[in-house]
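Notebook B, p. 112. Complex prediction, attempt 2.
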Amino acid sequence: MLHSIGTWITRRALVAAMVAASCVLAGPPPSAAQPDPLPSWNEGPAKTAIIALVTQTTEKGGPRFVEPAQRIAVFDQDGTTWVEHPVYSQALFALDRVAALAPRHPKWKRTEPFKSILAGDFAAIARFSEKEWLEIVAVTHAGMSTADFEKLVREWLPNSKNPVLKRPVTELVYQPMLEVMAYLRANGFKTYIVTGGGQEFVRPYSDAVYGIPAEQVVGSSIVTKYEYRDGKPILMRQPKLFFNDDFDGKAIGINTFIGKRPLIAFGNSDGDRQMLEWTTAGEGARLGLLVLHDDPEREFAYGPANGLPDTKVGTFSPSLMDEAKARGWSVISMKNDWSRIFPGPKP
Amino acid sequence: MLHSIGTWITRRALVAAMVAASCVLAGPPPSAAQPDPLPSWNEGPAKTAIIALVTQTTEKGGPRFVEPAQRIAVFDQDGTTWVEHPVYSQALFALDRVAALAPRHPKWKRTEPFKSILAGDFAAIARFSEKEWLEIVAVTHAGMSTADFEKLVREWLPNSKNPVLKRPVTELVYQPMLEVMAYLRANGFKTYIVTGGGQEFVRPYSDAVYGIPAEQVVGSSIVTKYEYRDGKPILMRQPKLFFNDDFDGKAIGINTFIGKRPLIAFGNSDGDRQMLEWTTAGEGARLGLLVLHDDPEREFAYGPANGLPDTKVGTFSPSLMDEAKARGWSVISMKNDWSRIFPGPKP
């Protein structure tokens, strides 16, 4: 449990471009000729595979037609629909919360793990133990009602800042993925976020950013306790993991929260392996895709698959690459497959 | 945990009239004058309250208007949308499974708890301990894949039989509730089952019976384990409770699975208390309703509220009745408020 809590908070988190909402909501533009539903995707095997999956499963009378009720699409978040480097956005939130709370806790200046956070000592932060992360979770994610937590997240989002790209986390969503979501929904698919990050961290912005309502966000969660305040019920967040929606937890989470096997799944790291296995093991047309971060000029480069630099944040291992090849999953090269990374004017 | 498993299997379960599906899907009939959206409801405070809630929250520009995305309606199942007496349908399923498996387990004839089940000794069954129910759950609900369990449920449904009403459990759904569901959906509400029963027990029939897709069924669940069979992943059901969606668990389940506070909640027993509290504590127009089983001629009579006979199956306690009055929840008298109980020709 301790391990899981630490993994959860260190591995995971939030947010993407509010500016993208208009694109999400607009869907593909009307046109006489068949418009390109994925304009930010270069022609290539990944784009072809996505369009083929949608075409086959929506062709009435076709051999691979699937009823709309069964058209489920799942998206990992961190590293798949938005930036996860150098650290998960939810970890940024936790660190910012510690800084915000520090004036009320003068002792933190002299006590770990808070001392290192307040000193901005990222090297020390990287070495935090599970016990230390649990302490951080306890003060930043628990000990408050669900309503209070949601308020904190909403207030933090516009002030958030990726430490390398120097932009709010909400602006660092991937335009090609917004296009895929809109394309799938226009074809009767129900789109879900299935994240190792905190479900209650993602829900406050998922609709505005991805066009995905709160009830279609499946994520990790902590235990909540039903209590009364002034005769009214509240749910108090406890410093204890309830569900770890990562690795095998993603397949379990899909089954528990959705109860239907997806037709298409997007991921980017070893934590998405079982989600893609579970998705593509279904009968009929299924598709698994993995984003490979091989674009240090426009975003980041990490693997260690394909000889890219190793990382503990969003690891894409050689064994995952081997499995992708063996099972016929598509690998999306950020560098080659995406003509544009972020919403807004083309750079 | 043992207690919870026992409570779960003894208190809870499944199924309602396939014959009702046409009604559910058809929705209110088109007509020049305003047709009655709830024809099986007699005029009275409960019907008036439901129509007022829908009218207020859907009136564009009105003071209590609610965006469609926030229009969530939740329904308890056992005793609220279908018959739960004399025992929960899921317990019937478990007992039938023991009988079906008995030939492969000759020792069961001499070993409790199976001996009593095979002898049809309902008095002994009523005295089963938590440990004995756990043994029953282990052989009837666990030790198999999720796919195999779903197959068992689907095969059992048409052969199921309520021991008193002598009809398949799927025919014992309440017509007035099907009408409410259709009415709410026609007004932009998303309808959910929020049941103490097993989520994977309800999902195989929820769409056909209630028009509610699998992903809108929130219920109790057991732990599943991700394994491989012939290189393909399966989820194996473990004899261990994961989530008990009852009492405070219903409020927690709504928050965890849906992430939005309902506008309207229907229940019938003490297990629904927190669901109604959570729902009606929200701002704006909210409504909680409780079905009172006071109709021994057409269905059953139990409370012990209002001096009705006591029961351990779907208890409606005097304290719940007191709270309903104090908080302004509507109590639905099955006898007075419903002109018809089950689908099909009016009796």
